[in-house]
Amino acid sequence: MTRRNMLAGNWKMNKTISEAINLAVRLKYACNSVDDRDVVLCPPYTSLKPVAETVDESPIEVGAQNMHYERSGAFTGEVSPDMIKDAGADWVILGHSERRQYFDENEELLARKLRTASDEDLKVFYCIGETEEQRDAGQVEDILKTQLEAALSGFGFDDFEELVIAYEPVWAIGTGNTATPEQANEAHGVIRDVISNLFNPGVAEKIRVIYGGSVKPHNVQELMAQPDIDGALVGGASLSADDFADIVKYDLEDEISLSDL
Ligand code: PGA
Q1: Domain span at residue 228?
Q2: Is residue 242 part of a domain?
Q3: Along the 261 residues of the chain, how does pLDDT read in single tens digits?
Q4: Is residue 261 included in any domain, yes or no?
Q5: Rounded to the nearest whole angstrom, what is the distance from the C-alpha of residue 16 to the centroid of ligand 1?
């Protein structure tokens, strides 16, 4: 089965509104002719609406980086699924390792967020991945299995508007230490096996599993050449229009130069 590639940019806590609009304008222009893959931009909350307005009428979609599991209420500092949709975003990233690491998000909490995202028809990037210590201890399979099963048990694949799994080994995020294409592909194979048991083999065939962790223009091609890798979730390199456009168009002839802008 051929799965449509997904290239998503996670801007993390970067870009003011005007910077975000500028980046989105440049990407909208650069990715204008790309129609055989999906592109999603995930700016900080403050820029969701301006970025969504900027890429309106283009194939580029917008996502939030996090979400609360309640729909409204006394949760100071939090943002609800309705607010995200109201800002023009269709996607949400859940379970990013920085949320797990710095904000103590665990599978129990993430299961609640996944339930709300499913109920509210938000499309989900669910991030999983092992730390360096866990890899060194030979625990990669166990960790991926736990992170998938503990959060996704009780769901059907069709409960989600869309569910994309992002394999992001923690040791590769923001470090410049990319997983080798073979390491990533092997982990993606494990993820498909777990998904096959959790849902069914058909879902394991069609679900998109994307890789994240120091994806750059120079390594994207070899990662995407792997049979089980269906795209990338890009952090640092998504902050540069040139770099992210090169990543999105990793195997296309470049017809448009950003220096024209
Ligand atoms: P990175 O981040 O590309 O800067 O390693 C990836 C991510 O955190 O999604």
Answers
A1: 5-248
A2: yes
A3: 789 999 999 999 999 999 999 999 999 999 988 999 999 999 999 999 999 999 999 999 999 999 999 999 999 999 999 999 999 999 999 999 999 999 999 999 999 999 999 999 999 999 999 999 999 999 999 999 999 999 999 999 999 999 999 999 999 998 989 899 999 999 999 999 999 999 999 999 999 999 999 999 999 999 999 999 999 999 999 999 999 999 999 998 765 556 656
A4: no
A5: 19
For residue 70, how far is the Cα from the chain centroid? 22
In this structure, the residue with its CA closest to atom 1 of ligand 1 is 235
Give the 3-state DSSP-derived string for 56-95, with helices as H, strands as E and coil as C: CCCCCEEEECCCCCCCCCCCCCCCCHHHHHHCCCCEEEEC
Q: How many domains does the chain have?
A: 1
> What is the Å distance from ligand 1's center to 220 Cα?
13
* Closest C-alpha residue for ligand 1 atom 3: 235
Question: What one-letter code names the amino acid at 35?
Answer: D
Q: Say which of 68, 96, 107, 188 is annotated catalytic.
A: 96
> Has residue 254 been placed in a domain?
no
Structure tokens at 28: 């909208």
Quick check: is 221 in a domain? yes
Catalytic residue among 61, 105, 130, 168: 168
What ligand 1 atom has the least distance to the C-alpha of 172?
Answer: 5
Could you tell me the two tokens for 45?
């909350």
Ligand 1 centroid to Cα of residue 114, in Å, is 21
Query: Does ligand 1 lie within 6 Å of residue 173's CB atom?
Result: yes
188 is catalytic: no
CATH code of the domain containing 108: 3.20.20.70
Residues 6+ apart with CB under 8 A from 195: 148, 165, 203, 204, 207
Annotated catalytic, 68? no
Judge if pTM exceeds 0.70. Answer: yes
73 Cα to the center of ligand 1, angstroms: 32
